[in-house]
UniProtKB/TrEMBL annotation:
Record GO biological process: aspartyl-tRNA aminoacylation
NCBIfam families associated with the record: aspS_bact (TIGR00459), PRK00476.1 (NF001750)
Sequence ranges assigned to domain Aminoacyl-transfer RNA synthetases class-II family profile in this UniProt record: 232-665
ATP-binding among keywords: yes
Protein family: Belongs to the class-II aminoacyl-tRNA synthetase family. Type 1 subfamily.
Name of protein: tRNA synthetases class II-domain-containing protein
Keyword tags: Aminoacyl-tRNA synthetase, ATP-binding, Ligase, Nucleotide-binding, Protein biosynthesis
PROSITE patterns the UniProt entry points to: AA_TRNA_LIGASE_II (PS50862)
Length: 682
């Protein structure tokens, strides 16, 4: 022991001490690990020994050509070699050298002795004309290249007569300079069977070609970047802290179906987060005042045009705050984004928010528009309680709206008949509350053709239902009870008819932006077979999520007697019929949160324990807090006037949740399943 200690001290004090990581690494590598010592014929760490006797590979002729061509692409451009940026060539001296890289845009062969071509820059924003003659060793090379071939061009800057149009294929042309080519290096080939044109519509399997040839698609990605950068700047100026939360989470019954990630520990799995909801509430208990994150979220749910299995949301949470503070913060952010110069052309050239965003209670929105995401631009407000003779329901409520598609009653009749005969219209004829009543105003008929609605109706017709010749009045019965869910059949019919009329050119497409906050949602919604909810036995689930607080003290008391009547401190921001995001004030008291789980939702003890981490955090003295999540993909979709979120996502999934480019999801091998102690049934 003494000798070992002495030896240690001797080494410690030795002047030959290896005092750097590099020296220690060299010392260790001289021992083994298959790395021979210095002087063995190998240089550095790139050599290794192998017990396998390897023979030299003899490449095929095709492989040899590919290897030789690949070696020629090992090209670097030094700053002192000449002009190397296309957009600066316009200021280059006549006769100076230029070394440029980019894509070949087009070529025009005037004769055997003269060819013109256009070179796109790397970002396809600028381009310059190339001139080639037989004096160049690469003259024949250039004449054999396909459009979109990536190349390195070396040549001399020459003067040229300015073109009338400074734009070429949407790019800024270097107008008073051109390059006389003397050398071209091909950086990769473009197959002869690959057609690359700007007008080509590429399938999802060729998403990369879609971006390469479509300037608008690339511009959308740049706009997405700009909006993200502006948002970060705005929030940081207001003391928000950006925090990344884990992607590998745990399974908890928040409301949506989850994606599970198995582990090699038998029976254990992660879950991908539906949202960072629980982590951001934990941050509020951690002394973080204001949090934000561009969060990746995952939900295994039925897909629609505005849904993806993975998506991005702007997540925000504020401590010691309630609904108004969060709503005001979002209004400020959306106002600033709508003033971004790069965005303005897409939203009509003027800010999209010019007044305070109105607020509307959920029940009122459902009664007036049949939707919790009303599009005010369409008009067609619903009027209720007109007549009780079109349904078998006992004491029904009857909603009605008007629609003017033509001043010719014949055109209107054909439109409505074709609609209800179409696949889009047939489901509305199968409403268990009764088919919709459809009435066409026709001045050529007695009582305007609306006599069936009754003399009193005609004499005192509600203003919202007054129609001219050819106008439509639609009636629909429903149960006279409070609203739940996101829409009513009448609200869906309103949207479907308007969409059909626009598609046929009978109505103009709506323009502009109409924002509204929808507030005062029911705290709970009756359960159904398609919504997993929180898995409780109460017969209902949380409308937003189980962490949402009741709106008032009276709503807290309703939890004891009639929870289905309680109102939530929940708010959605809606524009043009699209929900951009939703938020709420949270339950910050552990005992109240556990009471919601156990006594109100009647969740099992096992599922409640999945939230034990959150309950312990709340019990530590968590302050009141509120937050919101904006669907970032949806926001871009609305701002840019696109039909689907797939248009604003670089690599979206299909309607079936598939990535057609990389072919995911794929089928794991038996060995891969075995790694996770799993096997397929059947």
């Amino acid at each position: 022991m003494i000798l070992r200690q002495s030896a240690q001290h001797a080494v410690f004090r030795s002047p030959s001490l290896r005092s750097s990581y590099a020296e220690i690494s060299c010392f260790v590598r001289t021992r083994s690990h298959g790395i021979p010592p210095r002087g063995s014929g190998c240089k550095g760490v790139r050599c290794f020994t192998s017990s396998v006797n390897r023979q030299q590979i003899e490449p095929t002729e095709i492989q040899r050509r590919a290897l030789d061509a690949f070696k020629k692409t090992y090209i670097t451009i030094k700053p002192d070699e000449g002009n190397s940026t296309i957009h600066l060539i316009g200021r280059a001296k006549i006769g100076s050298r230029a070394h440029l890289v980019g894509y070949l845009a087009s070529r025009r062969d005037v004769s055997k002795n003269l060819s013109f071509a256009v070179l796109r820059d790397k970002a396809q924003r600028f381009c310059v004309q190339l001139v080639s003659t037989p004096n160049s060793a690469s003259h024949d090379v250039l004449r054999g290249l396909k459009e979109w071939t990536p190349i390195l061009v070396k040549g001399t800057v020459k003067a040229r007569q300015a073109a009338k149009d400074p734009l070429y294929m949407g790019m800024q042309m270097v107008n008073q300079r051109e390059i006389e080519v003397d050398e071209i290096a091909i950086l990769n080939d473009v197959p002869s069977d690959l057609v690359l044109k700007e007008e080509t519509v590429f399938p999802p399997e060729q998403r990369h070609l879609h971006f390469r040839t479509n300037a608008e698609a690339r511009q959308i990605l740049e706009l997405r970047h700009t909006m993200g950068a502006d948002t970060r700047t705005h929030l940081r100026k207001r003391s928000f802290v950006e925090v990344e939360t884990p992607i590998l989470f745990k399974s908890t019954p928040e409301g949506a179906r989850e994606f599970l990630v198995p582990t090699r520990d038998k029976g254990l799995a992660y879950a991908l987060p539906q949202s960072p909801q629980q982590y951001k509430q934990i941050l509020m208990a951690s002394g973080i005042d204001r949090y934000f994150q561009f969060a990746r979220c995952f939900r295994d749910e039925d897909l629609r045009a505005d849904r993806q299995p993975e998506f991005t949301q702007l997540d925000i949470e504020m401590a010691f705050a309630a609904e108004d503070e969060v709503m005001q913060a979002i209004e400020r952010l959306l106002t600033i984004l709508g003033q971004e110069p790069k965005i303005l052309p897409f939203i009509g050239g003027r800010p999209w928010i010019t007044k305070e965003i109105p607020r509307m209670e959920y029940q009122r929105a459902m009664a007036l528009y049949g939707s919790d995401k009303p599009d005010f631009r369409l008009g067609m407000k619903l009027s209720a309680d007109l007549i009780s003779k079109i349904s078998d329901l006992e004491n029904p409520a009857v909603d009605a709206f008007k629609l003017n598609v033509s001043d010719d009653a014949k055109v209107t009749r054909k439109f409505i008949s074709d609609f209800f005969d179409s696949p889009e219209g047939k489901p509305f004829m199968e409403n268990p509350a009764g088919q919709p009543g459809v009435f066409v105003s026709d001045m050529s008929k007695p009582q305007q053709g609306l006599g069936v609605l009754g003399h009193e109706f005609l004499m005192d017709m509600p203003e919202d239902l007054q129609v001219d010749n050819g106008g439509l009045i639609i009636l629909q019965a429903r149960k006279d009870e409070p609203f739940y869910g996101g829409s009513t059949p009448m609200g869906n019919l309103r949207l479907a008819l308007h969409k059909a009329a626009v598609a046929q050119g009978l109505l103009p497409a709506p323009e502009g932006y109409e924002f509204v906050w929808i507030t005062d949602f029911p705290l709970f919604t009756p359960s159904n077979d398609t919504d997993p909810g929180q898995g409780g036995k109460a017969g209902f689930s949380s409308t937003h999520h189980p962490f949402t607080a009741p709106k008032t003290a009276e709503d807290v008391e309703l939890l004891l007697t009639a929870p289905e009547k309680a109102i939530a401190a929940h708010y959605d921001i809606v524009v043009n019929g699209v929900e951009l995001g939703g938020g709420s004030r949270r339950i910050h008291n552990a005992e109240v949160q556990e009471f919601i789980f156990s006594d109100v939702l009647k969740m099992s003890n096992e599922r409640i324990e999945d939230f034990r981490h959150l309950l312990d955090v709340l019990r530590s003295g968590c302050p009141p807090h509120a937050g919101i999540a904006l669907g970032w993909d949806r926001l871009l979709t609305v701002m840019l006037g696109k039909e689907s979120v797939r248009d604003v996502i670089a690599f979206p999934k299909s309607g079936k949740g598939e990535d057609m480019l990389v072919k995911s999801p794929n089928r794991p091998t038996t060995e891969q399943w075995d790694t996770y102690n799993l096997q397929l049934k059947g």
